[in-house]
Amino acid sequence: MSEAVSHLRANSYAWGRLSALGASVAALTCVVDQASKFWLLYDFGLADRGRFALMPFVDLVLTWNTGISYGLFPQHGPIGEWALFAFKVAAVIFLWAWLARATWRLTAAALGLIIGGAIGNAIDRLHWPGVMDFVLFHIETASFEFRWYVFNFADVAIVAGVLVLLYESLLGGAAKAP
User: Fold this and answer.
1) Residue ranges of the domains in the chain?
2) What is the b/e burial string over 47-70, where b = at least 16 CB atoms within 10 angstroms of the residue's CB?
3) What is the pTM of this model?
4) Can you list the alpha helix ranges (DSSP code H) found in the chain?
5) I need a surface site. Which of 55, 71, 92, 177 has the fewest CB within 10 A?
6) pLDDT tens-place string over residues 117-138
7) In 3D, which of 38, 159, 47 has the Cα closest to residue 110?
8) Catalytically active residues, by annotation
């Protein structure tokens, strides 16, 4: 009987050997993302402060991203907003199925980062006018100016997770989608 259960679990798209690790990383990522946003908005008062320099090349600035990454495809109506939300839900379901079949801890942690970041940004869409972004990386000289897009902790987690999956796939790791 236990062999049959092990076989079902190994082939499950709902829960796998490393799902608890990935779920823990996702939950921690989402909590840190939401906590940072609430702290910056309500305790730090970023909306009232305007642009706040952290370092010569990093500022805090409040923006509401109504689109997807890099502000592409901005949505200003409920149909588009719900479509983006539905897309995020579908992405999280796909990533969860991948997590359930993960065989390496690093893969599970990377998928947890991506899932947690996606959920954190999706939560923003439910209670704010868009995703709250607040970190601006920039380089300015007398003859050159570079500004990266404004991002948040969830974005950092998503990019870190994707980079880990790319690293694993390029070096023959286990980062294979189901």
Assistant:
1) 12-170
2) eeeeebeeeeeebbbbbebbeeee
3) 0.86
4) 2-10, 19-38, 46-49, 78-100, 105-127, 153-170
5) 55
6) 999 999 998 899 889 999 999 9
7) 159
8) 133, 155
